[in-house]
Amino acid sequence: MTKPQKDNLFVLIRSLTKSEKRQFKLYIGRLGVNEDSKFLLLFKVLEKLKIYDERAILKEGFVKKQQLSNLKAHLYKQILISLRLNPSHQNLRIQLREQLDFATILYHKGLYKQSLKILDKAKSLAITHQEKNIGYEIVELEKVIESQYITRSLSSRADALTLQAETLSRQNLIASKLSNLSLQLYGLFLKTGYVKNDLEYQNVKEYFNKRMPNFEISELGFREKLWLYKSYLWYSFLVQDFKSCYKYSRKWVDLFHDNEDMIRLNPVFFLRGYQYLLEALFFIKNHKKFKNTLHKLEAMIQKPWFPHDENIDGLIFLYVYSNKFNLHFIQGDFKKGLPLVDEVVRGLKLHSNQIDEHHVMVFYYKIASLYFGMEDYDNAIKYLSKIITNKSLQMREDLLCFSRILNLVAHFEAGEDFDFDRLIKNTYKYLIKMEDVYAVQQEMVNFLRGLGDIYPHQLKAAFKALHAKLVVYENHPYERRAFLYLDIISWLESKIENKSTADIIKEKFSKSNNFI
Fold it and tell me: What is the pTM of this model?
């Protein structure tokens, strides 16, 4: 039996709304299919199941095991056709593809004039909305038709089409190279996180410069600029130049606000631009702009014209709640963020098909950090364990490492010293294996390892000594990344001053915002 909700057809049917199910049944009715059609019977069975169960399907007796695979494939195709016809899915790209299909049919029937008329309108729409890939396909078909449909204007028409094809091809090539570079940098970031030393910095810099295509900024349209800003953004993230991250994420968001129609057409890119802008503001500690930007994002997604579907709603949940956590971390009001935990757990279930495991674990890390800030160490350990015990996890190495460091500190704070030495040893082995041992991590592990030899009255002096060692790394080009995930400095200051970590962070927040 297939694992629950892993069968593609079953997952697709489970994702259908009531209106989409009604649309499918109306579509099937238009085909003249009777109620006893096998693929319609299969749809009705799968619609009622809570989990995918092949035995339950075969038990109905309308299909044999050998036929089931083909029947599922046929039903899957029919559902997709129905969804394509649904008005809620009729976006510009689908409409352009449809017009290109109509023009192709007319061309093959020899109705060249009618085909060219459709293509001309579709091309104008495609170029206006920066859909240059399909624009290029349209021009190529126009060239084929013009070569067969002889007109008096063929000479000037041929020149115009040739020039148009060359321009679109050039722009598509630049966009392709920039999108490839952006994707490769993003993949590198997900795998290794930030650069760790001068050698890695030089390698990334060389990699970036070698693959950046030559272009004139004046020849770039919306789409090419978008990929350009994304490429610079990921490069800036990798090398921890967070001011540049802010610069290019700001350009990314402003590009959409300057071309508001593109928000409707590319809502996913628009949302991601805001996510990276908020992340950059969080890293450069511009708290006021962070809060204002988050409010702007929440206001934008509430506008009646803003598009919504399962994918977009999943991203909205991911980005809004991730930054709501960050806002509480900035302000140090951890307890006020507690209601977010239940909301996020419910949201992760609701959007389970849209949110990948990496982002689920990032949420767990944020929840653990929230509990740590509240001094609820047992719950912090509970969520960190979900990350540490996940053997199949594909997650950024730096987040995995800091999950283990935070887990050690949480065990220390919780007074759970049973088997503490083994926990330290396993953590250190993991860091060595990941080749991710840096000064901040090394000092933390050494400190925790030596706690057994320190008397209670010596603890404050030990905390002060560690604080003095770590504070010099706060602005280090490579070591400072440790403080992006784990505010060790504030934790140490709380121990030295006999205050809660939350109070220390609140004081820093107030000073940075000129409230005192």
Answer: 0.76
